[in-house]
Amino acid sequence: MSTSGSTYGDIHRYEPARESTAAAIAIVLLALLEIVFVFMFSWGLVSGWALTADGNMFLGGLLAVVFIDLAFVLAIYRKEFLPDVMVVKKRRRKWEDLYVRGDQADGEQVESADVWDQVKRAVYPYYKR
């Protein structure tokens, strides 16, 4: 489904997620495997496996497997259960500065009498004029 709107924030393309059962089963199995690896890592820390060189490498490997497994769970979830949405964004030219317009490049002249009012507005934003 796509729309022809070109104003900022319009949805240009929307494709619903597949939501396959195989992906849901894979996420559940990977989550259970994640729990097992986290339990093994926690048990290794409590048991003092990190006191030996080999045990320290084993705990490092378990921690790496925990994060890799988590990455697979999140990748499958993003691919299968989140819709693909393209939103119209505001396009900016590469050579323009994002915050300063050309006529404001030299800054503004500040009067010495206005300095105190500007400080008060900066410190207290709801300052009444």
TrEMBL record:
<dbReference type="InterPro" id="IPR055742">
    <property type="entry name" value="DUF7318"/>
</dbReference>
<keyword id="KW-0812">Transmembrane</keyword>
<protein>
    <submittedName>
        <fullName>Uncharacterized protein</fullName>
    </submittedName>
</protein>
<feature type="transmembrane region" description="Helical">
    <location>
        <begin position="57"/>
        <end position="77"/>
    </location>
</feature>
<keyword id="KW-0472">Membrane</keyword>
<keyword id="KW-1133">Transmembrane helix</keyword>
<dbReference type="Pfam" id="PF24002">
    <property type="entry name" value="DUF7318"/>
</dbReference>
<feature type="transmembrane region" description="Helical">
    <location>
        <begin position="21"/>
        <end position="45"/>
    </location>
</feature>
